[in-house]
Amino acid sequence: MAKAQLKLLLFLIVLGITLGSMAAAYYIYDKILSPDKRIQAEIASIKKSDIPRIDPGAKRFDAAIDLIKEGRIEDGRDGLFKLIQQFPDSPTCVEAKRIIGEINMDQLFASQSKVGKKDYIVQPGDSLALIANKQGTTMDMLIRLNGLMGTMLQPGDHLTILPLEFSLVVDVSAKTVTLRRGEKNLFFKEYQATEIRLPTSVKIPTDMEIKGKSAVVDGKAVISNDPRYAEAEKWLPGSRTGVVLRTPPPVKAIPVPDPSQPATAPILEEAPESGVFLAREDLEEMFALVRNGSKLYFVR
Fold it and tell me: Which helix (H) or strand (E) holds 36?
């Protein structure tokens, strides 16, 4: 009898423990796990819905544009600059970069803007090429900044000098070319490449330099003061073979075989030319701002 009572007692203890465990498990599921699953399901449902996501940069963008409309150009530009730094994924960044670039370019060539510029007095024996080399700029920039019609200089003439401290960053994935300025590599302007084709020997990321600037008309090199300079085909070659910033090459027609003629050897297409291809107006603008030795970076 005592053994039966002991077994019954043990059975009740085990049953109690089991029921207690089940009750605890149900409590955890009902109070903790189940609500969490419901929340996750609701979040997933919201993500799948057509409800537009809140853009944290939109208000910053609108506020900066209002400042620009009020005539507070630099304050507005600074606001846009902070926007692209703090919210780089905001859809407004594309337009923000375009506006920053236009403002920067306008101020760079504005006669009343003195930021980064200095006055230079022409010395005996000076030439535009010599001054450009000594002052870290280019003949293109000297001619453009000073409205020169030729290269003749007189001792005592005053020239506005703008040292060119620009570098280029080519993002191969985004197909963009970003112009950056100064030692801090601050964003200055962004250009969209039409296409980027690099030699297989170029491994990304990598860095190099601009090596020379080529302006050619009818196969002959021309310089900034040549009347044909504006129409010249311009190239910015990198320091590695096959790397060049240029306009897209002309499309070459491929002869169509005449079916009435005997079969001949297959016509082979020429290998596509390599380079970073840009719209002509973008390359023209960029051409004036970089010089021999300017840094050229490739990223992905």
Answer: helix 34-48
Query: 69: domain CATH number?
Result: 1.20.58
C-alpha separations of 213 from 54, 84, 151, 222 in Å = 46, 31, 18, 11
* Cβ contacts of 86 within 8 Å, gap of 6 or more: 57, 60
Task: Please give the tally of structural domains in the chain.
Answer: 3
Q: 288 and 175 in one domain?
A: yes
pLDDT by position in tens, the chain (length 300): 566 666 666 666 666 666 666 666 566 556 655 555 665 666 566 555 555 668 888 999 999 999 999 999 999 999 999 999 999 999 999 999 999 999 999 999 888 888 889 999 999 999 998 999 999 998 889 988 898 877 789 999 999 999 999 999 999 999 999 999 988 889 999 999 999 999 988 999 999 999 988 899 988 988 877 888 888 899 999 998 889 999 987 655 555 555 665 555 554 444 468 899 999 999 999 998 999 999 999 999
Q: Are residues 183 and 240 in the same domain?
A: yes
| Torsion, Cα of 104, 105, 108, 110 (10° steps) | -110
Q: Greatest CA span in the chain, whole angstroms? A: 129
Sign for the pseudo-dihedral over CA of 252, 242, 221, 148: positive
Residue 203 lies in a domain: yes
CATH number of the domain at 170, please: 2.40.440.10
How large is the C-alpha radius of gyration of the chain?
A: 33
Q: What is the pTM of this model?
A: 0.73
Identify whether 265 is part of a domain: no
Q: How far is 228 from 215, CA to CA, in rounded Å? A: 10
Task: Give the structural domain span for 237.
Answer: 166-251+271-299
Q: Which of 273, 287, 274, 192 lies closest to 233, judged by CA?
A: 287
Distance (Å, rounded) from C-alpha 72 to C-alpha 69? 7
